[in-house]
Specification:
By secondary structure, the chain is mainly α. It contains 18 helices and no strands.
Length: 401
């Protein structure tokens, strides 16, 4: 992937500028009504005027800090609120740029939080456009390129752009490691462990398993040292490491690591979070590979009932059940779960994750096993389009209810 070229989405900027002007006009009207209109109409009640004036004042005062609020809400997983605050900041930033040339990278932060929320929604093309624009911006105050490249790598994996994803991970690693000279030691190693943990998961998805396991072992070491052996962060890294070992075929190591991740998550009260469902899902697949199907089925079914980070994650969990039942030759159940996974994934922008292609392939095979030849042929055509890098509409793959 080449260096991102500067993008000039003039239409978006013009819409934001006009919307901000209209919003300011509305605020001005509210202030005029509260201070002049209501008294003139004989409605000079403080119970009406004061809330109106306080509301407008608060909205205006909070505008410069909205990008920070967007970051906070995104960190808490409240993506709708994050998106609302990010849009609000960008509206007023479009006006402020007429007066102040730089906002110290706050517009970039707001756009990055928008990209995070788009990823959560499955709007991968929209997220990619924002991230590419963010990387193309020239601003000496910006120091978050490692985060942007890492998120862009995730988006590229979801879009089936393997080479671009690996290129982004390499750039993110270089940017992250450069911060060693400017960050305190504990902060640096926590940051590099976060990157290694996420990068390892992406590399595992791309079947670069030796690299993935190496990075995840380092992440585990740093997080154990700086976050604590039984911390939430260690549990997340162990989940990724167990997944990498599963893909590498080392099922005993995978089971041991994932059971440890589950134990830590339960101790740190993380059992209600989305990644706990991922632990159960990965552990269920591992137990199935070890022929412990009773416990595997229980865990896989439970994983589908737990919170998730968006429709893409729901697809992974339901697809795992499809694999489970397909391996057991219970093809009727398999095609139902494959259908649910495909339904989730086919609605996402440009989604061509490796697991999606495998899901469609095994869905086709399960249909053939059920002697549903015509449906299997339609699925095979859609699969070939996906492998050729083309988009497939949700209607192109016949699903089983």
């Amino acid at each position: 992937m080449s260096e991102p070229q500067a993008q000039k989405p003039k239409r978006i900027d013009k819409v934001r500028f006009c919307t901000a002007l209209m919003l300011l006009a509305v605020f001005a009207c509210i202030v005029w009504i509260a201070s002049v209109g209501l008294p003139a109409a004989g409605m000079d009640s403080p119970w009406i005027r004061i809330p109106l004036l306080v509301g407008v004042s608060t909205a205006i005062v909070l505008a410069p800090f909205s990008a920070l609020f967007a970051g906070v809400w995104a960190g808490l997983g409240q993506y709708l609120l994050a998106r609302a605050f990010a849009h609000y900041y960008l509206l007023f930033a479009s006006l402020a740029k007429c007066i102040v040339p730089s906002d110290l990278g706050m517009s970039r932060l707001a756009e990055n939080m928008l990209a995070v929320s788009y990823v959560f929604q499955g709007r991968f093309y929209d997220a990619r456009a924002l991230l590419m624009r963010s990387l193309a911006a020239e601003d000496d105050t910006i120091t978050d390129s490692d985060f942007v490249y890492s998120l862009l790598a995730h988006v590229n994996v979801c879009l089936g752009l393997s080479k671009e994803a690996i290129d982004c991970l390499e750039k993110a690693r270089r940017h992250c490691e450069k911060t060693a000279d400017v960050l305190p030691e504990d902060v640096y190693y926590c940051a590099i462990a976060e990157f290694y943990s996420n990068a390892g998961a992406h590399l595992a998805d791309l079947d670069r398993l030796d690299e993935a396991i190496d990075l995840l072992k380092k992440a585990r070491q740093y997080r154990t040292q700086y976050c604590g052996e039984e911390s939430h962060e260690v549990a997340k890294t162990l989940n990724n490491l167990g997944y990498a070992y599963f893909k590498a075929g080392n099922f005993k190591a995978s089971r041991e690591i994932l059971e440890r991740a589950k134990e830590i998550a339960e101790k740190t009260r993380s059992a209600g979070e989305s990644f706990f469902g991922n632990i159960l899902n990965n552990l269920g697949m591992t137990l199935h590979a070890l022929a412990d199907d009773g416990e595997a089925e229980t865990l896989l079914l439970k994983a589908t009932q737990l919170p998730s980070d968006g429709p893409a994650e729901v697809g992974f969990r339901t697809c795992a059940l499809g694999h489970f039942y397909s391996d057991r030759r219970e093809y009727g159940k398999a095609v139902r779960y494959y259908s649910r996974a495909i339904k989730c994934w086919s609605r996402l922008q440009g989604y061509r994750h490796p697991e999606y292609l495998l899901c469609v392939e095994r869905y086709r095979d399960s249909l053939l096993a059920l002697k549903k030849t015509e449906q299997a042929k339609q699925v095979a055509k859609a699969l070939q389009l996906l492998r050729d890098g083309k988009l497939v509409s949700p209607q192109a793959i016949p699903l089983v209810s």
